[in-house]
Each structure stands twice: as structure tokens, then as C-alpha cells.
From TrEMBL:
Its main location: membrane. One of its GO terms (cellular component) is membrane. Belongs to the amino acid-polyamine-organocation (APC) superfamily. Cationic amino acid transporter (CAT) (TC 2.A.3.3) family. It is a multi-pass membrane protein. It is found in: Membrane. It holds the Pfam family AA_permease_2. Keywords: Membrane, Transmembrane, Transmembrane helix, Transport. The chain crosses the membrane at residues 54-74, 86-107, 119-143, 181-201, 213-231, 243-266, 287-313. This is Uncharacterized protein. It comes from Ilex paraguariensis (yerba mate).
Amino acid sequence: MGFHSDSQKNGYGVGGNCVVGFKSLIRRKQVDSIHAKSSGVLGGHLQLAKELSVPHLIAIGVGSTIGAGVYILVGTVAREHSGPALIFSFLIAGIAAALSAFCYAELASRCPSAGSAYHYSYICVGEGVAWLVGWALILEYTIGGSAVARGISPNLALLFGGADSLPAFLARHYIPGLNVVVDPCAAVLVFVVTGLLCVGIKESTLAQGITTAANICAMIFVIVAGGYLGFKTGWPGYELPTGYFPFGVDGMLAGASTVFFAYIGFDSVASTAEEVKNPQRDLPLGIGSALSICCTLYMLVSAVIVGLVPYYALDPDTPISSAFASHGVQWAA
């Protein structure tokens, strides 16, 4: 009774509260003017320092994307879905990612902020949808980061001589009762990357650029050295009785839906929009260039790897290393 009386005093009933709650879910944020953003202070809050240009954005996009596709997905998708048609799976996924990237580039150039898809949804649809999108982004980055971090252990083990040769404090440990695998290498990698991000955008971008340069050099080596081995041995991976599409077109498309995960790095470029010097010009160039570089490298590397080794013989954890090792080039592996 008291609640009803208080509601009447405030001009609200149960229905009124529902209306207010619904309005709060669909209320939208106004697009910030370019003039207000250029002043350095917006809504009483200081903006992030504008330090990034096109080369920085390309380094961030390529560095956030390349590792997952090459080091984790190539072996698994080739074995289970695409076979030698993996190159077409990457191409189809790249085209689909490009369509999304064009939308990100347009929105990021119009609304440059660190909120990425959360901010765009808040402006276009409303706060309720933006809340869901924000948590979906957190889930995306958590799963993506975990998958990439998990891939470091098998590759690091090769430096020590084999899959089970890591020192005990770095090796994976299985907890039987909980059915959980503890991976110290993945945890260390996450802590190191988090520390770099906390230091500052320029320092983390520099580290990202160095890592990206090393990664691209490694991919170029795989393409050149793998191409030489392929021409020398006659590309045994393509001489199969099942043909180029062992799983059919359906398998190729299923592979494309899986390798799309390899392209999620381009949206990390949009997350840096508030720190870009000229977002209207640099963001579309950075996102488009990063996606083009990644798609080209994925297609070339996948063409080489599935040509060196039959798709059914690829190691799902270390496809590139095992492909070189199968041709007696252990030093490259």
C-alpha cells in the first residue's frame, strides 16, 4: 500500500515503471561532434592520447589476426572439413570478413571511440542491445585470446625436442577430478601481453609491431621454403584419389565458417579509434590493409602446407612444423 502511494506521489505506477525501464533500454547515445572530440575533453572525461597512424593500425590488425589462423586452424580444418580446398575456405571467409570490415571502417570513422561495436550499437539501436554486444565482445576476445595462448605450448615443445619434452613447470597438467587442463605457458603469455597493454599504447604498439614483423617474416619463409620443397617433391598433398574437394563443397563451406575465427583481429583496430590521429582517413585504410594482408598470407600458407603433406596426415596442433619435419627439414620446424 505504501509502495502504491509513493508511486502515485512520484507520478509513476507499475505500468509507468515498466515504461521508464523500457525507455532506458532503448535510449540512444548522441553522436559526438568532431569539434567536441578535437578539443581533447568530452563529457567531462579526458580522451586517450592520439598517437596512432596507418602503419600502427596495420601492425595492430595483422598482429591480432595472423597467429590464430596459421598456427591453430590450418591443420584441424584441413583434416576435418576442407582438405586441399582449404585455400578456398580462407578466401570465402576473407570475403565475408571484408563485408563486416567495411561496416566497421565506416562506423569507426564516423564515431571514433574506444568502445568499438558497443559504442556503435549504443548510438544506432540502444543501451539494451549495446549491453549485450559489449558482453559478447568480452566473450569473443576471451575465447579468441585463450585459443591463441593455448597454441604456444605445442610449438614451444618442439624447441625442446618433442611434444612431451617441456620442463615440468611449463608443461600442461591434467587435473583428473575436475577434467581441467592447466597450461602455464598460456597463462604466462596472457600476463605478459596484459602487462604490455598496461604500460601504454605506444609501447604495446611497438611490441606488437616487432612481433608482427617477425610473424610475417616467418610466414614468408614458410611460403618460399615450402614452395621450393613442394616443387622439388611434386606436391604430394595434391596427388590424392579423392581430388581437390574430398569433403565436397559442403566441407569447404564448413571450413570457411570455422576459419572465419582467424579474421576476428580486424575489429581490434576499431577499438583503437579514439587513439588515431586522423580516424576518418586512417581507420578504413588500416582495417582494409590489415585484412588484405592476412587473407593473402593465409591463402598462400594453406596452399603450401596442404600441398606438402596429405591433409589427413597433418598434425592438428603443429601443422606447419610437422609438414616441414615430414620432409626432413627439422631445423625449419
